[in-house]
Amino acid sequence: MGNPFSKLHADGRSDLDAQPKRTYAAIVFLLTFGLMLSDYMSRQVINAVFPVLKAEWSLTDSQLGLLVSLVALLVGVMSFPVALISDKFGRVKAITVMAIVWGLATIWCGLTENFLQMLLARALVGLGEAGYGGAGGAILISVFPERHRSTVIGIFFSAGLLGSVLGVALGGVIAQHYGWRMAFILIGGGGLLLALLYPLLVREPGRHNHSRLNLPLSSVIRQLFGPHTARWNYLGSGLQMFVQGSLLAWLPSFFHRHHGLDLAQAALHAALILLVGAVGMMVCGVVADRASSRSPRNRLHMPALYALITCPLLVLAFAMPPSPLQLVILTAGAFFTGGHAGPCGAVAADVSHPAIHATVIATVALANNLLGLAPGPFLTGVVADQIGLDRALQTMPLVSLLAGACFIIAARHYDQDRLIGTA
Length: 423
Prior knowledge:
The chain is an all-alpha fold. The protein has one domain (about 20-205, about 215-420): Growth Hormone, Chain: A, CATH 1.20.1250. Helices cover about 80% and strands about 0% of the residues. The protein starts with 14 loop residues before the first helix and ends with a helix.
């Protein structure tokens, strides 16, 4: 006779039966989260060494911004085709190959001798990272229940910000003591180790999870862009990511130039603020899930609120002279900047067929990169060359107002469009 204290589920399984699945889900989450950390550490470590590269290779702010934006541009352009491949042939296999490529490319960054070589190496980093957010997010969706989607995806995406924090902080400390080249080599090597471990412990989702159904491309396109909710959700997410991408790229340089900090101190100050942003991303995802239990539309109303809070806080912070109060307000703004990430990923999954969830999450990543992470650092650098970095960062948060409007419009269609995901 079974344990009388075990709780029976609707399908007759007990909590004891479910325990192995919970353990497996935890392992999958930790490894997938770890690779997201590696992804963004490889992407953002260069921000910590901007001052060194600027001096050693006589680079402009526009050139430095291009080294960041090129990665995001290639991630955005290639994420859709890579996600289609991973949906069709296997997400675990695709993730393993991607992680090996971006790990090797990051190591190559540490071996470059000039701007052009670094640009090519960074392009390969972007090619390797393309599609990972979609494939990783789809695997997590397949092992966690729908009611926790904003929370799980929010925490998963927060690994991007945490990885940025680690990349900037560790990159600055390593560069300060061992040289900027070693920063790339060590961070790339860590990614390679995770890439080799991942396929040994993570299984491809089964067909019963709708993970590898064959849908014609025309149906995929309709699923991705047909719902009004999806289109406005993509646009709002990308615009809000413009603000976050600018912060990721330029905070270390801001502290170096305007607060007079050395390389390691500037990187650590930026990392602490970005760490608060990562916590905010997780907390905001949980809040959105709880709010959506009262009204499904709150899954979009909350990102709108986060975006509208972000703008005045960051504008005020960058308009102030260096002071402890400026740091407090800047940190508060960073807390809300990425709060949209989890809800936007969940909304995209809610209004689409489970068979294309990797492609759906990748389309969110495409919007984030093409509208946000690619143009944000570059355009901020272009403006900084003309009016100074502090003033460029002061105007950048105005984009959040547009993002908030997009989320409000998307919410009007959500109740009807989410039926697609449950059909």
